[in-house]
Amino acid sequence: MGRANKVVLAYSGGVDTTVCIPYLKNEWGVKEVITLAADLGQGDELDPIQKKALKYGAVESLVEDATESFVVDYAFPAIQANTLYENRYPLSTALARPLIAKLLVDAAEKYGADAVAHGCTAKGNDQVRFDLGIMALNPKLKVLAPAREWGMSREEAISYGEKFGLEFPVKKSSPFSIDRNLLGRSIEAGPLEDPMVEPPEEIFVMTKAIADTPDEPEYIIIGFEKGLPVSINGEKLAPVALITKLNDLAGKHGIGRIDMLENRVVGIKSREIYEAPALLVLIHAHRDLESLTLTGDVTQYKRGIEQSYGELIYQGLWYSPLKAALDGFIQQTQERVSGEVRIKLFKGNAVIVGRQSDNSIYAPDLATYGAEDEFDHKAAEGFIYIWGLPTRVWSQKTRGM
């Protein structure tokens, strides 16, 4: 493929993306490298990362605070869709990729770059998410992926960088690969590659071990408006503050850990450990509130939409036409999903113990078995006759009766 003159590089400050700077310039003839680090609430101090990029050859080092957009434009729609990939993973890491792709494209257009680049390898999901997101937003931009092509081990990449003056402080190397943002953490590699190995407690940061959690349950109430979380225990909170607070509340009780074998886009099975306390609790609560406010046929049909929605996000198709069409359906269903859900947090579990809504279509006078019962019991026999008529006819024909 043809190379580029000016490139915007997605930059994390790690070994691979740092080595990408001299590699792009010396091996692929890129004249100018602009780095872009995205602040998605991961808690890292990004000022040193910004200076590091300039020190090692970037002509511009951008830091974009996109935390609020991350929650409002990416996490909240996923919550409204009750999105769980393979019915378990709430896409806490995957949701960041289309946003970073958008930031790269916006920066490329602003600075007149003819390409963008990332440090993803050939075996992961992120290369697919970045490439497809960029392609959808600006198909004219070239996408460069040096780490996918250079064929260097980590040790070789470090040696290559040192030839160009890069310094990698000697420190105890963690065998784990970790990605973090406001929504959660993903942990893989090292001993975790053996599916029978129990995850060591040291890898967890957002969630406490069950043995260290409080011995008394804690009850919280989450308020929703049109499918969006807006309050905790009656206190209205801005989106980022709400996620932050709920991460602390749920994590304190050991809630939010996932240990799973998932099917990557490239066909590989991967053992992944996730922490996503707030996101899991919100999806659990939101789905329950829908059961109170949506009709049965909408709720049941939406489950299939939710599965497709999760697969699209996982597979890097956030900006696809199908995703946009599904957004229309999901948003239509959320008009009446307002109310409160009461949750008991205790020893790793978030148990829903109550829910209420002004839009509730639960009718106590029809559901009750008490004296207030208004259900027409006489109508049941005729209903069953009509409902079961196809089964009756089928049985008569097949059994010769």
String of helices and strands: EHEHEHHEHEHHEEEEEHEEHHHEEHHH
Give the CA-CA distance, first to last residue: 72 Å
Q: Any guess at the CATH architecture of the largest domain? A: Alpha-Beta Complex
Total separate domains:
3
What is the C-level CATH assignment of the largest domain?
Answer: Alpha Beta
- Measured as a percent range, the helix fraction is 40-55%
Reading side by side through the largest sheet, how are the strands ordered? 3-2-1-4-5
Q: What is the CATH fold-level name of the largest domain?
A: Argininosuccinate synthetase, chain A, domain 2
Kindly estimate the percentage of residues that lie in beta strands according to DSSP: 15-25%
Describe this structure in words.
The longest helix is centred in the last third of the chain and has 19 residues, at about 295-315. The chain has helices at about 15-25, 45-55, 65-80, 95-110, 125-135, 145-150, 155-165, 240-250, 275-295, 295-315, 320-335, 365, 380-385, 390-400, and strands at about 5-10, 30-40, 60-65, 115, 140-145, 175-180, 185-190, 220-225, 230, 235, 255-265, 270-275, 340-345, 350-355. It is built from 14 helices and 14 strands. Strands 3-2-1-4-5 form a five-stranded parallel beta sheet, sandwiched between helices. The chain has a five-stranded antiparallel beta sheet with strand order 10-9-8-13-14. A four-stranded antiparallel beta sheet has the order 6-7-12-11. A hairpin with a 2-residue loop joins strand 6 (about 175-180) and strand 7 (about 185-190).
